[in-house]
Amino acid sequence: MGRKCSVCAHPDIQDINKHLIYGTTTYADIGRMYGLSTFALKRHKENHLSPIIDEAAEETRLQAKNDTIATLDAVDRVIREKFDVVLESSNPSYGQLLDYLKFRSGMLGETTGPTQVHVEWGPTIQEDGSIIKEPPGLTDNEVEEIERYARKH
Ligand SMILES: [Zn+2]
Questions:
Q1: CA 48 to CA 35: how far, in whole Å?
Q2: Ligand 1 centre from 6 Cα, in Å?
Q3: CA 13–ligand 1 middle distance (angstroms)
Q4: Where are the domains of the chain?
Q5: Strands, E assignment, 56-135
Q6: Cβ neighbours, 10 Å, residue 12
Q7: 137 φ/ψ sector (left φ>0, alpha ψ -120 to 50, else beta)
Q8: How many whole angstroms from 61 Cα to the centroid of ligand 1?
Q9: Distance, CA of 34 to CA of 47 (rounded, Å)
Q10: Residue 114 belongs to what H/E stretch?
Q11: How far is the CA of 60 from the centre of ligand 1 (A)?
Q12: Which of 24-28, 55-59, 140-144 bottoms out in mean pLDDT, i.e. has the lowest?
């Protein structure tokens, strides 16, 4: 280690640090108040004070991040517990999905911009360029029935 820092060794170190952090008093004025040189104050701020401030800011940032993640995890657990049957189902009803989305929006506080679901149903183009007209998982009869229904409405 090099020479001892005259600011760190000062009995009023806490007050001096406050002045340096607030930045409303000039180095010259702080120096006059506490009998320290401008150079010593600048060196102290750069080498001893700033790293502490940066570390504290990083800790606060990490804590906030962890708190947010913990909250989202908790919300996710509650939602999954309540809608386990719906989420595990391969074909949940629209009513179930709507209940799930309403509950999820409520839990996440999405009241002004709630989750929107856009259902698109059209021909699918496969990788080889061929087109599948009917939605997968439906029989020809079911597709015809839906098409009849769509024509009527
Ligand atoms: Zn120092």
A1: 19
A2: 7
A3: 9
A4: 120-153
A5: 124-125, 131-132
A6: 14
A7: left
A8: 25
A9: 19
A10: none
A11: 23
A12: 140-144
Tokens of residue 119, six digits: 């259902």
Q: Could you report the per-residue pLDDT of 11-31, keeping only the tens digit for each? A: 999 999 999 999 899 999 999
Q: How far is CA 142 from CA 2, 138, 152, in A?
A: 83, 6, 16
Residue 8 has pLDDT above 90, yes or no: yes
Residue 134 has pLDDT above 60, yes or no: no
66-109 pLDDT tens trace: 998 898 888 888 888 888 877 787 777 777 777 888 888 888 77
Query: 7 exposed, middle or buried (CB, 10 Å; 0-12, 13-18, 19+)?
Result: buried
> What's the CA-to-centroid distance between 62 and ligand 1, angstroms?
26
Helix-strand-coil percent breakdown of the chain, rounded to 5?
Answer: 60, 5, 35
Distance of CA 63 from the midpoint of ligand 1 (Å):
27
Q: Using alpha carbons, list the distances in angstroms from residue 100 to 1, 74, 82, 121, 137.
A: 62, 16, 9, 21, 23
CB 79 within 8 A of CB 104: yes
Residue type for position 75: V
